[in-house]
Amino acid sequence: MDGVDREILAQLQQDGRMSLTELAGRVGLSVSPCHRRLRAMEASGVISGYRAQLDAQALGLSFASLVFVTMRSADRETLEAFEGAVATVPHIIQAQRLGLMHR
Length: 103
Fold this sequence. Notes:
This protein has 4 helices and no strands. It has about 100 residues and is mainly alpha-helical. It has 2 domains: about 5-45, Orthogonal Bundle (Arc Repressor Mutant, subunit A), CATH 1.10.10; about 55-90, no CATH class. The radius of gyration is 19 Å and the shape is elongated.
C-alpha cells in the first residue's frame, strides 16, 4: 500500500458514494488505474464494505449512548444468546464486542 492507496481510502472515508471518475480526479489518477487499485483493496479485504452513516435526530433518536457490558460467562452459547437479544432491540443501531486478555 502506497500513498495513493492511502489517499483513495481517505477520500472514500469522506464520501463513499462518489463516482469512480470523481475519486480518480481527487487522487490524481486516470479512471482505469484508480479502478484497479480500488478493486485490489476490495479483493484483499482492506475495504470490507460500504455503509450508510445514519443521522440519529432524523431517525427520531434524541440521544446516543455508549454502554459497556461485562459478561459473567464468555462461552459461545451465552454470547450468542446475548447477541440475539441485542439484535431484537430496534433502537440499538450498532453493537461491538471487545475481547480482553486476562492474566
